[in-house]
Fold these 2 entries.
Entry 1:
Amino acid sequence: MSERRITMADVARKAGVSSTTASFALAGRTDMRISDAARARVLEAAEELGYRPNVTARSLRTKSTQTIGLVSDRITTTPFAGDVIRGAMEAARERDNLLFITEAGGDSDAESSLVHALLDRQVDALIYASMFTRYVTPPKELFGRRVVLLNCLAPGFAAPSVVPDEVEAGRDAARALLAAGHTEGIWAIGGHQALPATPEGIIAGNERMRGLEEVLREGGARLEGVVECDWGTPDGHREVSALLAQGHRPRALVCLNDRLSFGAYQALGEAGLSVPGDVSVISFDDQDIASVLRPALTTVRLPHYQLGRLAVELTLRSGPLEAVVHRVPMPLQERASVGAPATG
Amino acid sequence: MSERRITMADVARKAGVSSTTASFALAGRTDMRISDAARARVLEAAEELGYRPNVTARSLRTKSTQTIGLVSDRITTTPFAGDVIRGAMEAARERDNLLFITEAGGDSDAESSLVHALLDRQVDALIYASMFTRYVTPPKELFGRRVVLLNCLAPGFAAPSVVPDEVEAGRDAARALLAAGHTEGIWAIGGHQALPATPEGIIAGNERMRGLEEVLREGGARLEGVVECDWGTPDGHREVSALLAQGHRPRALVCLNDRLSFGAYQALGEAGLSVPGDVSVISFDDQDIASVLRPALTTVRLPHYQLGRLAVELTLRSGPLEAVVHRVPMPLQERASVGAPATG
DNA sequence: CCCACTTGCTAATCCGATTTAACAAGCTGG
DNA sequence: CCAGCTTGTTAAATCGGATTAGCAAGTGGG
């Protein structure tokens, strides 16, 4: 691209030294003796010429490209993706690394081909990322490489995983409800997804419910019912409408994600019930919409930025990677949808 | 990263030829004579050894890294970003290119530093992208390089731009309203942003309004009023509530983006008005929320995927880049929020 | 005065490809 | 029978750095 770049040879020539000296001076290495004068001349020449090292050439020798490859299923198409990528990018940038972002769309051939493309470019490490937390089987090209699993788990695959701490998130939701005084009329919408309806729910649903039930029980409260359904906005609308139509009068709704909450809001609104006056709503994810609903939604946030950041930080640590599961805390976003239970 | 890779020298040795022959055979080049037998042996050896070329080494010689760098302001944090990136990635992938994604967060020092990092890695081209359509002044490091401007314009900077065709989008919105029979009681919410309230609106607002007014006029209709305001959900809610409170009874609302529409829905709902029975709503962007509102929102879609794709395709075309503005069509998403005007 | 040891620097090699220049062997036509 | 062409192949240079091995000049001790 465009005119010839200044090379180290140019710098060496201008400073009147060999390229060896220039290389050591520029790298700031002290394991070879260079006079202060020579060092200064090299640095000055580099400065004047606007010298920038050619990372491509360097990595041919050093085997390090300061580059990390990220392979995802369809991470760019989810509303969260941006934060994951941003977290990863910023962590990479702090250590002078750059990120190749790729997406395989769930196609395992595409996945292999992308991993190859990344490997051909000599990336220092690979991050294998999933749109939602789930179990995966990474492509065989990844075996034996420096890999971090982002938002997914692969038992038997020797690599660290970075996932949200869903169980604790469930506990936090329960604590928030208890703190507001709720002990009765609590319904969970979305359920465990034990018989997975929405793949997204397999891990999230189970773990959130586990933490929720655990703390509710300890707090002397309990779930009046659990509605098992898919996790879309229309599902929330339909199921909550049905619940009300059956004569139930919930005091608090734990929606397993924000889209369900939005559907629940629609159903409650149509039934003339107010949030949180008549019914409190708490949920998980903290999508954009959560803060814009009326009333703003109290929800336990998926820590996407932190997830991306930690995944990159792990790859950048020196030494081999340990196959440990890192659980990232999910902070509770307290807004306006949880209130004291309606009396009577 | 991990064990030694197979090099071309290995392949040549196994095939019993020189690395020159191996190189030409693998590249499929015919400008040097190679016997069919030798060619076959090389290919077979490569296959058996699982040889993959080292792109880093190759590009040192060829000056082409098959890599494109994308620098954005804060593209990852917007709900649209995913599609832009996906379009860019897929276009790159089709031509065996990979994408470095970076984000400067609007900081021009960070921008320069990122461009350098990209240039140091010898990217073949750069894409300078903005979150929303606006005028930009690219960092000086970009001058003289192979650059495409994505979702932004920089008069005086010799590079092609790829932007949405906002004027035509405004025309389409007007046509949709006319087709449904609307000629009176049409209000625009969000306005021209001529005195920019929301930076996002500077170009989008002006051009959408221009197209809208043009076609409305030609169709014998006109705007009853234009509300100038910011472009967030609360603004839509507030302004439409105010409009109704003042006694106005709009038949159709043209909201300048989907967030405004969502706010308008909230206000209309609170006033007991139905969409589209009492009031039709049409808007721009087609964010995720548009299809999930009740009723689903008719909106003119921002072609993010196409934008990303075209930007990459331009960089991949051979020859110098022409400083042309490419306007990408914005398709109308007809859903359920536009109906015949209320009678009486 | 000579040997050993610093000090300061450079020549040469390597990394893994691509590409240029050249060369050996076989064939053909005069 | 030999010059000249074709055919098939390879040695060597190159890209831009990092690294290893080694060398010349100066210093100090005996």
Entry 2:
Amino acid sequence: MSISLYNSLTRRIQPFSPLDPRRVTMYLCGPTVYNYVHIGNARGPVVFDVLARLLRRHYPQVVYARNITDVDDKINAAALEQGVPISAITDRFAAAYREDMAGLGIGPPDIEPHATAHIGEIVAMIQSLIAGGHAYAAEGHVLFNVDAYPAYGALSGRDTEELIAGARVEIAPYKQNPADFVLWKPSTPELPGWDSPWGRGRPGWHIECSAMSAAHLGETIDIHAGGIDLLFPHHENEIAQSTCAHGGKMFARWWMHNGMLTFDGRKMSKSLGNVLLVRELLRRHPPEALRLLLLRGHYRQPLDWSDSAIAQAISTLDGWYRVLRDLAAVALPAGPLPVPARLEAALCDDLNTPQALAELAVLADAARQHGSAEGKAELLGGGALLGLLQQDPQAWFQRGGDEVDGERVERLLEERRAARAARDFARADAIRSELTAMGVAIEDSAQGTRWSAAKT
RNA sequence: GGCCAGGUGGCAGAGUGGUCAUGCAGCGGCCUGCAAAGCCGCGUACGCCGGUUCGAUUCCGACCUUGGCCUCCA
């Protein structure tokens, strides 16, 4: 089954094939670690985690890099404000980021490069850009010269003329062309900085991704991914730098961009202040429902976040886990879990996760009706490719159980069983009400009464 | 203003030139002491106006409208 992926560069879906069929290289723009990430920041990591899972099935090796940007003016501002070295900020939030991503069921990347560990590569890349006439030093800064790269704007569909006309920022006097962007900037003594041929300074925003991508994945990579809001200027600038630094070699063969997560119809963003932290959501809701929610829309479309959407995701998972719970005693066939063809086909079609989830629903139905080991295996196998349905059903249904006194529940259930046996239904219903008040839902079945204490 | 992506049933959200999305919610029935779950069934969805076509939600054009980028941003 071949994979087709939309390429922002060509604006069309193309059959995917890596440069080296034995080794796929993929880079995702990671966070700048100066505070906790919000759920919008997690969409790309979740979506591209599914892509990584899919690619690993198709190719012998996938090298997936997701960077940490740990040098940046916002980090500096936070460090100055708190009177601590920047590493105190970046270490803390990089660790928090890993925890948050793991909480959403995202597998760790193969490589997690840090910008500060690549200053040498960054300086070298800037030197080669200057040597090639693609960059120039001015007043302690080094700037990329967009006029020296005629293809500038190809990714975002802009030309430099219109960029200048529409520029809403004040243009620094040392720029030759207003669209030129900073590769290196000088640091004052209180700011972090590294020695360089242009004095003590620090890298500009875009250069670190170019340097780290080349250092770990090579000069030409297969897939470069990120949020659509990074398409310009970040990715446009990365292309310009990398291409010019590597003698015109293509930088990334596929550019993939996830749509924005919205909240009340507006982009969730720190500057608008309408953010929900992943950390907070993980504490309040079942993590798997959050992941499911992020996969319920096609990755290129906007996706609106809401409490009712979370509730829907939980209900959906309730149904699927109910099937798995009913099949708990059914032994799985030996060997690895199968991957259902229709579900995989949906993912191969430009990562159509909504379609894949529809297929998963069909598989859940089939498993419930047939009660077979094969059905169970297919449901689990399909779920695994999406990073869903891998926990113990019992754990899913009793995830709020920390606050519930299990022994008391069992005692009440036994009492209710006796009342029902004596046909004292008034008493039985009173006990059920009591359990409901405790946040415990019950379900009578041929195998006895089940209970669940699930948080929303 | 420029560039880009959308507007699908109560909600979410795929998809297609001509019988099925899917999930959640709702309604009717079966089952159940009653619930819950399960099972069976139900609801004339494709922004608006033209055009192409035997036939358009799906293709083309105009219009209305929502959002993203053009500044930090996943």
